[in-house]
């Protein structure tokens, strides 16, 4: 008798018609074979899937070039197929599930012809964790198979764990012919099933990541009283050796990876990394909030990464522990066979290939690396890995931080008055957009809790869920907002950022411990300049005052825009959020 898993795989093979099926075991030997298949056999646009990089300077490193139309998440092709549209909410594209499946069945018929079907058994979360989930993804490209091995706990043991059960998390992925017209990322939350076709890009194709661990998991969390969030998890060690754990939600390419592994500019402080992208938050038996990172790798933004901005990431990328490390759509120094991107340690060489492999002309003003070029690397390589990383229970969270790119208006840091006020801050938060998704870059978009592209159900219900979670906790974490990106009149960042962000984290942990002052403003509690530790940093009082200023007159347009956004959720919007909005309005207008 075949198991439900075997039956499911067999059914998908009947539809997609691969040449053969390979069940992955997650071993290093297998990863070496996958790299070989990607270098010698599989093609994208006629070119190999992987190129070997200089192994002396970049051990275990390979370059991958995407199909040129396939370099970021495609939110307009991403659907959440609940039985009814209302459950999906105005924040999701929706299609009736049976109709969606019919369309995908047509697109998938024979889509794996001439290819290998890889079956990937993996866990999201530590296998000993009560919060972990057993999953299986099918894919037809070595890049996705090997990326999933870096990002998740892939092992044949998962097959045994699933045994005769049918409720494992299912993902069916095919790159199809990379045609953007035939590209869809579709979620069936009640079946724990993701079906993705036409893209090989991370968030569209590594189905354990945004698709399951956020969109579907957020829906599970709503029904089971937990939260799946687009958040960093980190420990901050003070000079006395106390470690405070916090999470931070920021939209894509807004500084999570940098924050999670920051090299502190303040002597005596250290940051310990638990996760840089996804947090699953559960209320523990003691009534406190605990966080686990369901992933074991980074899929991080390359441009701007250097020994100056993020020395621990450079060490991680050059680490030799885990095979392999992938670079996606970076440039290539042809002389040295090394990856390169804008903002890296060394200047571009004389003979460079751009992210598409074409000769790069520096005077063209086009970047050599794609702005959303990324690396995929094991978290076990990182020198800042927390010793609690594999703790199945997770770590207790004392603060939740919301961030984003706001060139104006928003102070460096704000503390919420209460959990409810903090949820409102999360709801109204937003960011100037980045290259991580396929849309215009640099325009303000409201992005509640940095979850707008990832919340797998109606966000008004999600806000109510957040409020409810607060009332279930004995000691809900304090909520803060941060903004590293405020600029002066000439568009220069006012705050040095990166390792200096520890000064803001210090204020946050001092506030938690009632050791720091602040002043009350209509938008929350903001530090006075003297409340921020400024020893060892060259920043003028004027700049600091500007960074911490709240000008209620400037808030008028913002408040209108917030109202418009809240109204887009109609009558479902919780009254508590509207009450917080009204308080802000009364104080500013
Ligand atoms: P996803 O992986 O897309 O979810 O994004 P992320 O939030 O992890 O993004 P990441 O940390 O990789 O940040 C991307 C960009 O933000 C890079 O270009 C960084 O240089 C820039 N950045 C990060 N931290 C800071 C900071 O403190 N100040 C400034 N000015 N830029 C920063
Ligand atoms: C993001 O876009 O937020 C990412 C990269 O972290 S992806 O996995 O592609 O979603
Ligand atoms: Mn992300």
Description:
The chain is an alpha+beta fold and 589 residues long. It has three domains: 4-47 and 71-224, Phosphoenolpyruvate Carboxykinase, domain 1 (3-Layer(aba) Sandwich), CATH 3.40.449.10; 228-296 and 388-588, Phosphoenolpyruvate Carboxykinase, domain 3, CATH 3.90.228.20; 298-381, Phosphoenolpyruvate Carboxykinase, domain 2, CATH 2.170.8. Helix content is 27%, strand content 22%. It has 16 helices and 32 strands. Strands 1, 6, 7, 8, 9, 10, 11 and 12 form an eight-stranded mixed beta sheet that branches. The chain has a six-stranded mixed beta sheet with strand order 16-14-15-26-30-27, with helices on both faces. Strands 4-5-20-24-19 form a five-stranded mixed beta sheet, sandwiched between helices. Strand 11 (184-188) and strand 12 (193-197) form a beta hairpin. It is globular. The relative contact order is 0.12. The structure holds guanosine-5'-triphosphate, sulfopyruvate and manganese (II) ion. Guanosine-5'-triphosphate is lined by residues 250, 252-258, 276-277, 300-301, 303-304, 309, 436, 484-485, 493, 497-498, 501. The site of sulfopyruvate (SPV) has 9 residues, from helix 7 and helix 8.
């Amino acid at each position: 008798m075949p198991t439900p898993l075997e039956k499911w795989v067999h059914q998908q093979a009947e539809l997609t018609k691969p040449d053969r099926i390979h069940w992955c075991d997650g071993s290093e030997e297998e990863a070496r074979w996958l790299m070989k298949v990607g270098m010698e056999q599989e093609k994208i646009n006629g070119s190999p899937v992987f190129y070997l990089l200089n192994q002396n300077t970049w051990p275990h490193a390979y370059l991958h070039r995407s199909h040129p139309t396939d370099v970021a998440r495609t939110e307009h092709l991403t659907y959440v197929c609940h039985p009814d549209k209302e459950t999906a909410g105005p924040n999701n594209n929706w299609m009736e599930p049976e109709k969606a499946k019919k369309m995908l069945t047509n697109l998938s018929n024979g889509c794996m012809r001439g290819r290998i079907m890889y079956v990937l058994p993996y866990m999201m979360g530590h296998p000993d964790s009560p919060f972990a989930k057993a999953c299986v993804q099918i894919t037809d490209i070595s890049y996705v198979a090997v990326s999933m091995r870096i990002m998740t706990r892939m092992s044949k043991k998962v097959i045994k764990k699933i045994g005769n059960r049918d409720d494992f998390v299912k993902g069916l992925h095919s790159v199809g012919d990379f045609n953007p017209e035939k590209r869809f990322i579709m979620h069936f939350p009640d079946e724990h099933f993701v079906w993705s076709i036409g893209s090989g890009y991370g968030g569209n194709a590594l189905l354990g990541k945004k698709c399951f661990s956020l969109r579907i998991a957020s829906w599970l969390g709503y029904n089971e009283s937990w939260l799946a969030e687009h958040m960093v998890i980190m420990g901050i060690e003070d000079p006395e050796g106390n470690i405070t754990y916090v999470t931070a939600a920021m939209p894509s390419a807004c500084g999570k990876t940098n924050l999670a592994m920051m090299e502190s500019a303040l002597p005596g402080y250290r940051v310990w990394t638990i996760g840089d992208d996804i947090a699953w938050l559960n209320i523990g038996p003691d009534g406190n909030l605990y966080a686990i990172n369901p992933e074991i790798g980074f899929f991080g933004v390359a441009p701007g990464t250097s020994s100056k901005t993020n020395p621990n990431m450079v060490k991680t990328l050059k680490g030799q522990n885990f095979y392999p490390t992938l670079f996606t759509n970076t440039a290539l120094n042809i002389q040295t066979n090394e990856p390169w991107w804008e903002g890296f340690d060394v200047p571009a060489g004389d003979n460079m290939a751009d992210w598409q492999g074409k000769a790069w002309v520096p005077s063209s003003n086009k970047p050599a690396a794609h702005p959303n070029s990324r690396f995929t690397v094991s978290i076990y390589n990182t020198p800042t890995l927390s010793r609690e990383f594999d703790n199945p229970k997770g770590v207790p969270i004392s603060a939740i931080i919301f961030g984003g790119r706001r060139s104006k208006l928003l102070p460096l840091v704000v503390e919420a008055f209460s959990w409810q006020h903090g949820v409102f801050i999360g709801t109204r938060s937003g960011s100037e957009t980045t290259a991580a998704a396929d849309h215009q870059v640099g325009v303000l978009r409201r992005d509640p809790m940095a979850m707008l592209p990832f919340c797998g159900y109606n966000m008004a219900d999600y806000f109510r869920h957040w409020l409810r979670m607060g009332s279930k906790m004995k000691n809900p974490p304090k909520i803060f907002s941060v903004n590293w990106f405020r600029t002066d009149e000439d568009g220069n960042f006012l705050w040095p950022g990166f390792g200096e962000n520890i000064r803001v984290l210090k204020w946050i942990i001092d506030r938690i411990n009632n050791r720091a002052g602040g002043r009350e403003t209509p938008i929350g509690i903001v530090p006075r300049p003297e409340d921020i530790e400024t020893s060892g940093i060259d920043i003028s009082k004027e700049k600091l005052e500007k960074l911490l200023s709240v000008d209620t007159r400037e808030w008028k347009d913002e408040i209108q825009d917030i109202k418009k956004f809240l109204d887009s959720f109609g009558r479902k919007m919780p009254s508590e959020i509207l009450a917080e909005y009204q308080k802000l309005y009364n104080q500013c207008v």
